[in-house]
Amino acid sequence: MTAAIERPGGLRRGNAVARLWRESTLVRHLVWSLLGLLGYYVLSVSLDAFANLQLAQIAYLAIATAGLTVLSGLSGQISLGHGAFVAVGAYTSALLLQHQQWPTAAVLVAAVVVTAALGALVGVAAARLRGPYLAGATLALAVGLPALADYHGLRAVLGGANGLIVTSPPPPLALGESFPVERWQSWIAGFCLVVTLFLLANLIRSPLGRAMRYVREDEDAAALSGVSVARTQILAFAVSAGCAGLAGGLFALVNNLAAPGAFTLTLSLSLLTAAVLGGLGSLAGAVYGAVIVTLLPSWSTQLAQAANLPREIYANVPLVLYGVVLMVVIVLFPGGIQSGVRRVGRLLRTAVRR
User: Fold this and answer.
1) Nearest-CA neighbor of 255 among 99, 117, 61, 64?
2) Domains of the chain by residue range
């Protein structure tokens, strides 16, 4: 009798949990974020120091790529200059750590705020440009902004071509005196990545995210439906630039350096390549793209050295492999790697149901 009475209550509770999972995107995103933090921790503690540095690099590149994929995939604006925003975040963090000794969290928040403000200014101009004109303007930003560090009026502050040396805060003593600095830096980068993906995932489902999609599909129809096209595009640039600024702050912390040579046009193109490879508009795709962009050069170099290729040849192998991988992904999965993952998932579910 007791079991008969308790069972319906248990079913009701189970149904309530299932309904909450289906209807609340916030709960789903929170659960996935916690699982992501757990998975990142398990992966980090199983890796050595060098691999943890690579993991941190993947994390901050994924943050910048996620911001770019929201800008290009969600709001439909192209940017070839996100490396410049990464540079602003890195220099902001370097200056604060060098002169103010702010806590790490405050430094990273400041990098986000400063870069988002710059992104909003760029967004004001970008809202008036379309297509190749916008691409050209952001390309000029990528080339010109990092070069300001070597301008004679700013050389004393920004360190010129040599840049600024950054002293990263040590791990907390509670972790032990012998705790690897690389793992601590990787944890910071991983935590920032998960938080960024959580916030962006909720932004995509928010009214602002819907407005960005309307603007991407048809600006005139969006304006007629009450969406402020210019404001939406400016906010999209600010959010995307803020992500790049956070990536830049983490770059400075992990690499102990902020120098113009690290923020060339190649970085901007690598971020765009990562976004396209993973799938524009896909946050999971941003992670896949960051993994490929980070690991492919080292893998290709090791492969070329193992084949005993001359140095002048294997130096260009990563560029060739970039092109090959990009063409293969575009041919097989026009929507990026994430679209391929979804397609495989659908095929597996269909096979299981049969």
Assistant:
1) 61
2) 23-282
